C-alpha cells in the first residue's frame, strides 16, 4: 500500500500553546507528530518540572474543534475508541516500568478533550539520527551495541508485558550528553486499517511487511525488524531499502569492517518473512553478543605458558644475549598464538561464501602514510554544525553538497530548507521542503518548517 499523505496545517490540529490539561499540565511547543499522536513540551505546575505530553490523535480519524476538543467523523467512533483504549492500556502498562533504563518513563495518563493523553519524562539530548550525522553518518557495530544495549533490554521487558512499540527508529531514540540512549514515543496504538492506511504512519525502511496492509500479524518480531533496521543504519550510514525496493530484490549492503556474525544477525532481524526472523529481542541480543562468550576458556595453555616464560625472559634478558634471543623467540611464538585469541576464527565457521550479501567496496589503500591528519568532516555534519553556528550561507552550501552523495537525503533537505528560509530564499526553501514532504511527511522538524515557511510567504504578500 502506498503512503497516504494528509496535507493539513499543523496549526489546525495541535493544541494551542498555553492550554492547560487537568488544571496541571501547561502545553508548550511542539516536539513532534506521528500517525497516531502529537507530542508537546509541557510544564507540570504542581511539581514544577518540564515533561513531554503525547496526545492521542490518529491522522485521518481525529479532528480538532475550535474549542480544542477532539472529535472523529460520524461512523468512525468504533475504531477511534478502540485505538484510544489501546493507547491508555499501553500507558498503564508502561507506567509500571517507570525508572527502567532504556525507555521513557510514563508518569500519568488520562482522558480529556474527547481524547487521551500520556505524560512522560522529558528526555534531554539529540536523536540517534542526529548523533550519527555528527559522527559522519555511521559508527562501528561494537559502539552501536553499547549504545542500544539498554534499549534492547528494556524493549524485551516491554514485550514480556504484552506491549509493542511499532515505531522503533533512530528518530525515536534519544542520546544524552553522557551517551545514554532512551527509546521514546510509545503509544502508537493500533487503529482500524479499514479507515486509516498504516503506510501513512510508517517509516520507510524501518517497518516490516506485516505493518503494511490488513491482517498482518504483529508481535515482538515486528519490533525486532525495526531494531535490525536501526542497527543497519548505525553501521552502514543509511537505512535499509524500503519494502518496495526489497521486494524487487535490492540487496542489503554492508561496509567493510562489520563483523560477519553481526552482519548475519542483522540480516536475520531484517528477514521479510516473520517466520524466518528472530521471534524476540532476546534471541537477537544473544546472537549479537555471543562472540565474546567463552573467550577466556578458549586461551590455549601453550599461549599461557609462553606468556609466563616471556615474563621471566624480560627480567633477565637485559643481562645476556641469550636472554635477548629468547625474548625474540618467545615474541614470535606468542604472535603466532595471540591472533586466534583476540580475533577468534570460529566466528565465521558454518557460513558459506554464498551466504554473504553485497558489500560496499573498500577504498583503495593510500600510497603513502603521510602525516597524521584529522578525518575530513562529512558534508551533512558540516552543514548541521554551520547551521547551529548561524552560518546559513555555509550551511546551505554544504547541505546542497551532501544531497549529491547521500543515499538518504532527508537530513540534508531539512537543513537546506531551513537555511534557505533564514536567508529569505523562499522559492528554494519551498522546493527543498516539498521534496522532503514527498519522501517522509512525518520527518521530525518538517511540520515546524512548513509552518514557518507559510508565515514568511504570507508576510511577503
UniProtKB/TrEMBL annotation:
Molecular-function GO terms, alphabetical: ATP binding; protein serine/threonine kinase activity
Keyword flag Transcription regulation: no
Pro residues: bias regions: 362-377
Region feature (Disordered): 340-377
Binding site for ATP: 54
Listed Basic and acidic residues bias regions: 349-360
Domain Protein kinase, chain residue ranges per copy: 25-289
Keyword terms: ATP-binding, Kinase, Membrane, Nucleotide-binding, Serine/threonine-protein kinase, Transferase, Transmembrane, Transmembrane helix
Pfam families per the UniProt record, alphabetical: Pkinase
Chain ranges passing through the membrane: 303-322
PANTHER family on file: MITOGEN-ACTIVATED PROTEIN KINASE KINASE KINASE 20-RELATED, SERINE_THREONINE-PROTEIN KINASE YBDM-RELATED
Protein name (Swiss-Prot/TrEMBL): Serine/threonine protein kinase
Organism lineage string: Bacteria, Thermotogati, Synergistota, Synergistia, Synergistales
Amino acid at each position: 500500500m502506498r503512503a497516504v499523505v494528509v496535507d493539513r496545517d499543523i496549526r489546525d490540529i495541535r493544541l494551542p500553546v498555553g492550554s492547560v490539561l487537568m488544571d496541571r499540565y501547561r502545553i508548550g511547543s511542539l516536539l513532534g507528530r506521528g500517525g497516531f499522536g502529537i507530542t508537546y513540551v509541557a510544564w507540570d505546575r504542581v511539581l514544577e518540572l518540564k515533561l513531554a505530553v503525547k496526545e492521542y490523535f490518529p491522522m485521518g480519524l481525529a479532528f480538532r474543534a475550535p474549542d480544542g476538543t477532539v472529535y472523529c467523523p460520524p461512523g468512525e467512533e468504533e475504531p477511534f475508541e478502540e485505538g484510544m483504549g489501546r493507547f491508555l492500556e499501553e500507558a498503564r502498562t508502561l507506567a509500571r516500568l517507570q525508572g527502567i533504563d532504556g525507555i521513557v518513563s510514563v508518569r500519568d495518563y488520562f482522558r480529556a478533550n474527547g481524547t487521551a493523553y500520556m505524560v512522560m519524562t522529558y528526555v534531554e539530548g539529540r536523536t540517534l539520527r542526529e548523533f550519527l550525522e555528527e559522527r559522519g553518518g555511521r559508527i562501528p557495530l561494537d559502539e552501536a551495541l553499547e549504545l542500544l544495549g539498554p534499549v534492547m533490554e528494556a524493549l524485551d521487558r516491554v514485550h514480556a508485558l504484552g506491549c509493542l512499540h511499532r515505531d522503533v527508529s533512530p528518530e525515536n531514540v534519544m542520546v544524552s550528553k553522557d551517551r545514554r540512549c532512551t527509546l521514546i514515543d510509545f503509544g502508537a496504538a493500533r487503529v482500524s486499517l479499514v479507515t486509516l492506511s498504516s503506510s501513512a504512519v510508517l517509516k520507510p525502511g524501518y517497518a516490516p511487511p506485516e505493518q503494511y496492509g490488513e491482517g498482518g500479524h504483529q508481535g515482538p518480531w515486528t519490533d525486532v525488524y525495526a531494531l535490525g533496521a536501526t542497527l543497519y543504519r548505525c553501521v552502514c550510514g543509511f537505512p535499509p531499502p524500503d519494502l518496495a525496493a526489497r521486494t524487487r530484490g535490492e540487496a542489503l549492503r554492508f561496509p567493510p569492517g562489520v563483523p560477519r556474525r553481526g552482519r548475519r544477525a542483522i540480516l536475520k532481524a531484517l528477514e521479510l518473512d516473520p517466520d524466518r526472523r528472530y521471534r524476540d529481542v532476546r534471541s537477537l541480543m544473544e546472537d549479537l553478543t555471543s562472540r565474546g562468550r567463552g573467550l577466556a576458556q578458549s586461551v590455549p595453555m601453550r599461549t599461557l605458558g609462553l606468556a609466563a616464560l616471556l615474563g621471566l625472559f624480560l627480567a633477565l634478558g637485559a643481562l645476556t644475549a641469550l636472554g635477548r634471543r629468547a625474548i625474540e623467540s618467545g615474541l614470535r611464538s606468542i604472535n603466532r598464538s595471540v591472533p586466534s585469541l583476540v580475533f577468534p576464527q570460529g566466528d565465521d565457521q558454518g557460513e558459506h561464501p554464498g551466504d554473504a550479501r553485497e558489500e560496499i567496496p573498500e577504498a583503495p589503500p593510500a600510497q603513502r602514510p603521510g602525516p597524521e591528519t584529522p578525518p575530513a568532516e562529512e558534508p551533512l555534519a558540516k552543514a548541521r554544525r554551520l547551521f547551529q553556528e548561524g552560518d546559513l550561507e555555509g550551511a546551505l552550501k554544504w547541505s546542497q553538497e551532501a544531497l549529491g552523495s547521500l543515499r538518504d537525503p532527508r537530513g540534508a533537505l531539512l537543513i537546506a530548507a531551513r537555511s534557505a528560509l533564514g536567508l529569505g530564499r523562499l522559492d528554494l526553501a519551498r522546493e527543498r521542503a516539498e521534496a522532503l514532504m514527498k519522501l517522509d511527511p512525518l520527518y521530525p522538524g518538517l511540520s515546524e518548517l512548513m509552518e514557518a515557511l507559510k508565515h514568511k510567504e504570507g508576510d511577503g504578500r
